[in-house]
Amino acid sequence: MDEVQVTTRLQHHQLTNAQVWSADGQSLVYDLRPAQHLFTSESVEKIDVETGQITEIYRASQGAHVGVITAHPQVNERFVCIHGPELPDADWHYDVHHRRGVILSAGEVETIDACDITPPFTAGALRGGSHVHMFSYEGDRISFTYNDHVMRQRSLEEDQRNVAIALPHQPVSILNKTYREHDGSHFCVVVSETTLTPQPGSDQISRAFEEGWIGHQGYITLSGARQRWALAFIGETVSLEGHKVPEIFVVDLPEDLSDYKIAGDSPIEGTEQCLPAPPASIKQRRITFSEGVGVALQPRHWLRSSPDGSMIAFLMADPGGVIQLWVISPNGGSPQQLTKGVQDVQSAFTWHPLGKGITFVYNNQIVVYDLASDALVPLTTKTSAAPCSEAVVWSPKGNKIAFMRDIEGFRQIYTVTTTESYWC
């Protein structure tokens, strides 16, 4: 199968790690940062993969930057991305704790997460920066990672990365706004719980990150009931020897939207001394116990669930130190090693829309791990330089996979077609 170069302009084109295809599978969305590590894109675009037609979705103004765009899984022309502050200055500029999420739809720009950085803080608002926004399968809820401005003002260590969600049932207005505070269209809450100094050998974590929604409709619990809403994320534990060990955690989320307003031991909006806390009904639980191996942090990847919610895929080293693809049930249990290659898995990954396989970079090729045959299927020819590691994304119809290559100093977008009827 031949790969097709989709973008050709002499500039950088950056795909996010998932949800980069329009709902109809016709277009790909991306930002135009000048380099992979520079978050200074001024616009986000889409390109029709058949015609090559490029459309600017949104252009920031007043010195703001935008990027890390994802597409609504069910609705064309609806997107979400990071938006940096307008009129940035030395005290408030694009950074992990100074950015927001925005929904882009029909020419309108809607800020998702309200920001309230002066006490008394507001329930449903956050206090800093959101990042890598992912729609749930229906698209009505959005997950993201979060950093806190208020705690960072106390010390860098106290701004611990967490996982948060945005719920559409109630816009949030900030009373007596000060400069840099703003309203939001969604009620936002942190759903992970971090500890500044985790107890060695415990399930406490210092940060939470790289989350993913579990299943299109949640997952089936050990009791046979359906847990409709849940997220998996990586949490950084501390071993008895004092080493940081990334493990997988799950949070089951309530269906009743009113439950998100009920605080537990700490306020959901946070205080001047502590981060925003999860609602009372949300408790994180650890599902991997890797005995010090830990989930791989390189290549960087995000936990991704099978469509039916029965398996959470992740990367971890095997006993020989080779990075392999693994899966585990959201109920916990023993992880299952899928790949058994002699070389590392080289990239983030995504699932086939019907759960038939997982695609990623291996041996400098785009490959598919076929669950039915327990085999790796190469889709592209091996090259001296591997495809880029950040994004290998299956289309909604299962007929194409999008990825990136660095060509003559610029990151370009490619697709490869999965023509066999099995995948389509």
Automatic annotation (TrEMBL):
InterPro entries the UniProt entry points to: 6-blade_b-propeller_TolB-like, DUF3748, WD40
Gene3D superfamilies given in the database record: TolB, C-terminal domain (2.120.10.30)
One family name in Pfam for this protein: PD40
Superkingdom of this protein's organism: Bacteria
SUPFAM superfamilies associated with the record: DPP6 N-terminal domain-like
Stated family: Belongs to the TolB family.
Family annotation (PANTHER family): PROTEIN TOLB, PROTEIN TOLB HOMOLOG
Name of the molecule in the record: DUF3748 domain-containing protein
Phylogenetic placement of the source organism: Bacteria, Pseudomonadati, Pseudomonadota, Gammaproteobacteria, Enterobacterales
